[in-house]
Amino acid sequence: MRDLEKYKGVIPAFYACYGDDGGISPERVRALTEYHMKKGVKGLYVNGSSGECIYQSVEDRKIVLENVMAVAKGKLTIIAHVACNNTKDSVELAKHAESLGVDAIAAIPPIYFRLPEYAIADYWNAMSAAAPNTDFVIYNIPQLAGVALTMGLFEKMRENPRVIGVKNSSMPVQDIQMFKAAAGDDYVIFNGPDEQFMSGRVIGAEAGIGGTYGVMPELFLKLDEHVRANEMEKARELQYAINEIIYKMCSCHGNMYAVIKEILRINEKLDIGSVRAPLAELIEADMPIVKEAAQMVRDAIEKYV
Q1: Which is catalytic among the residues 18, 139, 213, 257?
Q2: CB-based contacts of 164: which residues, under 8 Å, 6+ apart?
Q3: Which of 3, 29, 62, 277 keeps 20 to 30 A from 202, CA to CA?
Q4: How far apart are CA 107 and CA 45, in angstroms?
Q5: Could you list the residue range(s) of the whole structural domain that residue 59 is in?
Q6: How many domains does the chain have?
Q7: Is 62 in the active site?
Q8: Is residue 248 part of a domain?
Q9: Is residue 305 assigned to a domain?
């Protein structure tokens, strides 16, 4: 019997934690993990888009996951994103993740070359086979990966008994309904786009994985609480407030994750470095916007939590 309850809740996407030399900082990884535990989130999604995985080496990603697990194992649900743009490295990361005892591994499809669906299925199943005692989550993010999870490919992947759900980051909320209708209650559909957390949950997602949860976990935990209690007017008001914060964070020259990390430094006294090139770092002109966004987070927590 599959334990799906451990996935149902608010699961922040873990941020890349760099030292002053630009390398992975084990100490800062552990500090960020402890921060999330204190906030009361359900789990963490490690080494995904928000973790800047596309710009990290296999060894970088192992160091991150090892230090997350050193703090969180048995205390948080951990989903490790293991996809690289080749099967060999992906399989290596899948084996490593299982050896550490993660709850699930996850993967986007290979990017750049447009592969046929049977090749994508082979790629996903190869890393799943390398972690035979670990659940597998499909990561659907067509706007970045360049290929979408079709209903046919999803049906094919459900032949793999380790597949337990989809992290759906496509923008049409209808996709969540389609995946949920096809899979039923024996699978978990995770809402991906943070700006439509409420909509995704209402139409069928049982959980959420998101890149902005970590900078304002209190707000997403409260939003999830409102949805569960069917308090839709309160949920809508809070979703709008969250979205205004996200829009503000996206208005800088620097990358949104650089903004998020500076807000964590301001609001939580948590230093996890900046972002890795070619992601753009903050410039001086960004700082008034960052400070405004940080204040918006504080104000929203005071008002809604």
Answers
A1: 139
A2: 2, 4, 7, 104, 135, 136, 137, 187, 188
A3: 3
A4: 11
A5: 5-229
A6: 1
A7: no
A8: no
A9: no
Phi, psi of 272, deg, nearest 5: -120, 20
The tens digit of pLDDT for each residue in 172-226 reads: 999 999 999 999 999 999 999 999 999 999 999 999 999 999 999 999 999 999 9
Asked if 83 and 97 count as a contact pair (C-beta separation under 8 A), the reply is no
Query: Which CATH number covers residue 180?
Result: 3.20.20.70
**Nearest C-alpha neighbor of 101 from the set 74, 121, 61, 122:** 74
Give a yes or no: residue 125 inside a domain: yes
Residue 15 DSSP code: P
**Nearest residue to 137 (alpha-carbon basis) of 29, 227, 47, 17:** 47
Query: What would the pLDDT profile of 121-156 be if each residue is shown by its tens digit?
Result: 999 999 999 999 999 999 999 998 889 999 999 999
167 in active site: yes
Task: For 104, list phi and psi in degrees, rounded to 5.
Answer: -155, 155
| Helix extents (H) in the chain | 26-39, 58-72, 87-100, 117-129, 142-145, 151-157, 174-183, 197-203, 217-228, 232-249, 256-268, 287-304
Q: Of the residues 42, 62, 167, 261, which is catalytic?
A: 167
